[in-house]
Amino acid sequence: MAADLYADYVIVGAGSAGCVLAARLTESGKHKVALLEAGGDDRPLHEPSQFVSNIMIHTPIGFGKTLNDPKVNWLYETEVDEGSGGRSHKWPKGKVLGGSSSINGMLYVRGQSADYDGWAQMGARGWSWDEVLPYFRKSENQERGENEFHGTGGPLSVSDFPEEHPVSKAIVEACVQAGIPYKPDLNDGNQEGCSFFQMTAKNGRRSSAAVAYLHPAMKRPNLLVEKRAMTTRILWDGKKAIGVEFRQNGETRRAMAAREVILSAGSVESPKLLEISGVGQGALLKELGVPVVHESPMVGENMQDHYMIGCQAALKEPHHSINELSRGVKLLGQIAKYGLTRKGLLSYAVAHGCAFVKSRDELAYPDIQIHVMAASMDLEYLNQYQGLRLDKEPGMASNPCQLRPESRGSIHAKSPDGMERPRIVPNYLSDPLDRQSVVEQLKIIRKIWQQPALEPYMEAKGDPFGDTDEAMLGYAKVAGGTLYHAVGTVAMGDERFPLDPQLRVRGTHNLRVIDASAMPKISSGNTNAPTIMIAEKGAEMILQDAREAVAA
Ligand SMILES: Cc1cc2nc3c(=O)[nH]c(=O)nc-3n(C[C@H](O)[C@H](O)[C@H](O)COP(=O)(O)OP(=O)(O)OC[C@H]3O[C@@H](n4cnc5c(N)ncnc54)[C@H](O)[C@@H]3O)c2cc1C
Question: Could you give all domains of the chain from N- to C-terminal order, each with its CATH number?
Answer without folding.
Answer: 5-551 (3.50.50.60)
